[in-house]
Amino acid sequence: MASVATLKSLRRMAWGLAALAGLSMSPTLAQDAAAGKAVYARVCAECHGKNAEGGANGAGPPILPFAHEAPGMISIARAGKGEMAAFPRKDLSDQDIIDVVAYLKALGGPPAK
Ligand code: HEC
Could you tell me if 47 and 55 are in contact, meaning their C-beta atoms sit under 8 angstroms apart? Predict the structure, then answer.
């Protein structure tokens, strides 16, 4: 018989999956993208360019069409990657990253120069 602990962790996993599914079907996606545009301008544009076309002097590569889901982008942002420093939560919340991913996905790609 499954232990209470197992049942609890299963329930938590189900909630996590529901949250992920909700993310991609969210009716608030447009709203997230609008918020993400501001996050992008504040945090990412400096290195990746105004339209995600890549920054001057190779500061950051072009990132369109955007190839990451929010959980993947959160991992990259928290760990940093190469020349891209890690972002602490106080500068960039998980919600900020979810929003910025919605924005970048909505841009489609390839980037406008
Ligand atoms: C300080 C400059 C800088 C800032 C700010 C910055 N990036 Fe980057 N980013 C880079 C550089 C440089 C790379 C290439 C890293 C490497 O692969 O060595 C990179 C890589 C990436 C990649 C490619 C990772 C991959 O493996 O596909 C993504 C996606 C990305 N950045 C998204 C973002 C987003 C979103 C933001 C804003 C939240 C951001 N970056 C802010 C400099 C920056």
Answer: yes
Reported pTM: 0.78
Q: Where does ligand 1 bind, in terms of residues with CB under 6 Å?
A: 43-44, 46-48, 59-61, 63, 67-68, 76-77, 81-85, 92, 100
CATH of span 28-107: 1.10.760.10
- Separation of alpha carbons 15 and 57, rounded Å: 44
Residue of minimum CA distance from atom 23 in ligand 1: 63
For residue range 50-98, what is the model confidence (pLDDT) as tens digits? 999 998 766 899 999 999 999 999 999 999 999 899 999 999 999 999 9
> Phi and psi of 84, rounded to 5°?
-85, 115
Task: In the chain, count H helices and then E strands.
Answer: 5, 0
Model confidence over 34-53: pLDDT tens digits? 999 999 999 999 999 999 99
99: its two tokens: 């929003």
Query: How do the residues of the chain divide into helix, strand and coil, expressed in percent and rounded to 5?
Result: 60, 0, 35
